[in-house]
Structures are given as C-alpha cells and as structure tokens.
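quick one, 238 residues, struct below
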Amino acid sequence: MKKQRTAVLASIALAGGAALTALAPVAAQAATFNPCSAANHGRLKYPTGSAKHVVFAISPAYSSNHVVVTECVKQGKSWKKVSATTGRAGTKAFARPGAKREGDGKSPTGSFALTEAFGLGNPGTKLKYRTLRSSGDCWGSTPGKSHYNDYYSASPCRSTDEDLSATARRGPYHQAVVINYNRPHPKSGYGSAIFFHVGGVTPTAGCISIKEPQLRAVMRTLVPNDRMIMGPKSALFR
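---
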C-alpha cells in the first residue's frame, strides 16, 4: 500500500471547493444523528464488547469517504456523546463487511478494538504507546512477508511496507491509534495498516483521519479494548 499512501499524502495540496461541497451531507448528518443515542435504543448492529469508549466513524453511504467521527462514553448502561468532528476515510470510501483487500483504497466496515497507539510523544493515552524514532519504525503491508500487519524495526523498511517514521515527519502519524482490523492474526492480503490518525482534510489509503487537536483529545480518553465502529450509517445501524 506504500505507493498508494504516498499518492494520497501528496493529494493534500489539492483539497478545496469540491471537498467542501461533498462535506455538506456529512455536516447535516452530524446535526441530526446521534450514534450514542441510537446505540442506547438497540439500533447498533455491531457489538461494543468491553469498551468504555466507542469511536464511531460514519459515512452517508459506501461510496462516500467523508465521515462524522463521534466519541461515546459508557455511563452505567447507557452511552453518552463526548465529542463529534468531521473526518475522512479511504480514497475509495468503504468496503462492505469482509470485502476489504490490500491496496484497494477502501476503509473496512465493522467494529474493531483499539489496543495501541504511536506517534511523536504520548499525548496522555492509556493505550500501549510507541514513541517513533527519526527512522527505523516500520509496519508490514506486504502480503506473504514477515510482520504482515504488524510493527517491526528495520533500517530501511522494506520498500513495499509502511515507513512510520517518515510518515510521522510528514504529519499524518504525529499521532495514530491502531485499529485492530485483520489483527492480531492477519489473513494475508486482507488489508493492513488501518489507523486512526492525523488528517481530516483529504482521503486516506484506508484509515480514518481527523485533525490533530481533536485526535489528541480522543486519545487522552482511550483505554485498552475501547473500540472503533466504522462504515456507512446503513451498515452500522438498524
């Protein structure tokens, strides 16, 4: 996925009026739909497990890569809305459940644990945190190779894998949370390196991104086994 991700990062400079126009239905969704309340009323199709916080990334349709990212906290038996902001998903929007594949430019649909994070310095999260170095931090994205969909250390990283250190220097991985899609026992070719990272302006290669201050705020609340539930509204809710 490395070449595709490089192209996606380069497209940041092209964001403009078209993106603002596409954002309109997402902004309307943020104003009218509360996923925390919907979960309280039994409308959520996916499990929340033992999560104390759930982060929803909801698009209007499978074809849209504009999302509303909403955090909900568990209070007793109910979910309460903590925050909401706009963000972006993959360049090709969302894959249907089970259909995500390596390099397809789509974000996976489903409910995934959040167990670890990485970046330039811990912003206060209780997740397991890895501080990236100036070089040598890698993530396997090559089907059939060792460390597929997992961290490894090498200098340089394999050319077909993610260079986390370099991407952090460019900005997107200033902070990132690992979305446990196709983990911890990955199927080769089913997709890798799905993160919740800094961005929110242009599409990603399959991750979910929001602006850095909002991401840091969410990260400070997260504990192991909190969850990201992501995809089009119709796929997530009854």
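Confidence is low (pLDDT under 50) at residues 6-21.
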